[in-house]
Amino acid sequence: MFNLKTITFNQKKTSPIALEFDELIPDKIYGWEKSDFEKYMVPIGNSKFPLSDYFDVEVEGEAESPAQVKMILNGDLGRVKYIGTKMTDGQIIANSSVDLHCGAEMAGGSILVNGDAESYAGREMTGGELEIIGNVKEFCGASYIGDWRGMTGGIITIHGNAGKQLGECLTGGEIHVKGNCDILAGIHMNKGLIQIDGDVTRWPGGQMQNGDIVINGSLSRFLEGFEQEDFVKNPTISGKSFSGNYIKFTGDIARNGKGSLWLAAEKNRHLLY
Question: Lowest CB count within 10 Å: 155, 195, 199, 266, which one?
């Protein structure tokens, strides 16, 4: 993407209480100049403080729309939450691990996290791309507490490991974990694709209704609500081509589900009936 405007946040100091960056997205700041950032009061807990106490912001170029904005966040962002929340376009690069809700409810654009991400990364996404170079905590791509609809569109790529309940209530979109994954991936899943290249502890797809879960590593234990269907060579799953032999299971039959759980045959023969 060609960016006409680069907005760089260079951290000056950290805060023990998380800064909330949900208002600092390309949609809202594409027309801002340096003076606007110097006047901005950032929420921290129940109060607001000058953003300039925590970040020095440099602005280069001009933009006519959010699509023409690239935000670069430098420093220790472990206590900065809501990065990219509800963004619809543009690009954000976070050069550190980040706090809660990174990319939550994003509808477009892209976020790159050069580190780890805390819980609820990409929750309830409807579009866009979220890429996390490190690990992610629980509830990535999930619904929020009390809701039954998680991620509905977009792509999440995790280069490290993922915590529990990845893609909980997934209703669309794609999540790709290149490392290992904890329990209950795809619980209450209704649609979409979850691909896990590493090992999974147990119980993926609990109470799923539809969609596809692909596990290329070893699964230690799965739920009894899945029925073994067949061996499939080089399957096409959710429009993507996979190489090798897979064991296909269907479930969760406890919910009359028609979801598909695909296990790499070579690493999961211990689960054959």
Answer: 266
